[in-house]
Amino acid sequence: MIDPRPRAVAAAGTLLWRRRRGRLEVALVHRPRYDDWSWPKGKLDPGEMWAVAAGRETEEETGLVARLGIPLPRALYVTPRDELKEVRYWAATPTGGHGELLNEIDRVEWLAPDPARLRLSYARDVLQLRALLEAERAGHLDTWPLLVVRHAQSMPRSQWSGEDGLRPLDPDGLARAHALVPLLQTYGLDRLVSSPSVRCVDTVSPFAESAQVRVRTKKGLSEEGYEARPEKAVRHTDSALQRGAAALCTHRPLLPDVLGHLAERAVAGSAARRTLSALATAGIDKGEVLVCQVSGAGDEAVVVTVERHRP
After folding, report:
1. How far apart are CA 91 and CA 247, in angstroms?
2. How far apart are CA 17 and CA 104, in angstroms?
3. Boundaries of each Nudix hydrolase domain copy (predicted)?
4. How far apart (Å, rounded) are the C-alpha atoms in residues 30 and 72?
């Protein structure tokens, strides 16, 4: 049977924002081919994850490396070629880059919100700007990412005769570990904290090597450590909330405590709290990355949004 539903062209982009002299500004790009002003965005490459495409396209169109923040409303529309197109957006902050324009863009301008709204060529792009400003008013725009990673697929216990902590990833797990590199890069991680089990360390090692970030191992994030001292799972989660841009790589048995604690730190009544509470019971997939955007730090840390990046 032929599926009559049209397949949407997949694209992703960002609303880059910054503060100058205490005032919020957002970046718009100009495409001379269409003589229009919009947000930096572009189509996904085959097999590419949405968030990865958002970061890549932003760098290609603005010359700026972006760290993704909170997700923003998507756009769904029909193009002049009569194609259905879905664009997913994130708020993002520039963290580096050369600023050279390399891809169909001849101008990038930073504008205050009101001039930006007037400059936009398409009414649909106002939706993302409105959501960004609502987050700003709520104090939820300036966030940092805390990622919870469940280790990728490993060799079955039944096929491994050595110590469980030495059980390695299988070929699918190794492939997933390498596929995670561009995703973790997109969130600009400064710290990696992992169970010392080989299957956890090897899940994040390809990114660690690429970004030259040290993997810090904590026995309290291992299955054996959790069995002996279950309270350490929450303690390590709290420690991660003291600073910024971190990933915790651990095992399924710890997830109820880790995700349940993060649910308690989420905005009351929010989708983030509901998602974390549900996943604390249901768990996440092997090789999945759960991205929590956090406002503040330490005792003031609040989880604002949650996204799932599944294999």
Report:
1. 20
2. 21
3. 7-133
4. 21
